[in-house]
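Same chain as my last thread, 145 residues:
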Amino acid sequence: MTTRTAYATWSGTLLEGRGEITRVESGALSALPVSWPRRSEAHEGVTSPEELLAAAHASCFAMALSGALARNTTPAEQLQVEATVTFEKVEAGWRVTSSALRLHGTVPGLDAAKFAEIAEGAKSGCPISAALAGNVAITLEITAQ
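reply #2:
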């Protein structure tokens, strides 16, 4: 078992206030500003929880797929993954409603059908996908193999 910790601060009201992801335990990220307008409108260079979720989903899926391809004895030469997380106002309030994964991979010796099959399995098996399952629509588009 492992745990990871991130730290954030917030000052002021939701609409006029602002916050910061002050640091993460690993030290890989620090001093990332966040604000409601930058979350629900144009980002203007300010990150959001949804952008960080997209980064987590893209990297988690890439790792899950890499592992699955290695177990299939067809390791990837390269995987490029894009995750687009949608944050929108719905009847119950603001929600993350979807995460759309786009995949471009170079996997020598593997046909497109088998690549798609393994990628679909990795999509379901990725721990971030599992955390989102039942709450967020997850799609996968394979642009090339």
